[in-house]
Amino acid sequence: MNETQTVSALSALAHAQRLRVFRALVIAGSEGRTPSALADQLAVARNTLSFHLKELAHAGLVTIEQQGRNLIYRADFAQINGLLGYLTEHCCQGGVCEISESTHCDC
Fold it and tell me: What's the CATH class of domain 3-89?
């Protein structure tokens, strides 16, 4: 992940409703969710949800799969791991790392 991609991803997540949508997709895992299921789950208008999903997709944080007449949205775990990796790439400057192992920090 480069700086431009990182800024785009962080910008997309810097909105409360988009963050909720993304977290719901993370919880859904590889099964993903349709927009209507997400709208019902999060109690958000479908047109508003559509806008937020488009922003998350544009930032590369979600994938979209056509299944028949439905779209299935999934969190792109490779992208989010890339984002975390970019943010922690040079953590601790060679010192003892205080970041938890779950962030994939290798220092």
Answer: mainly alpha
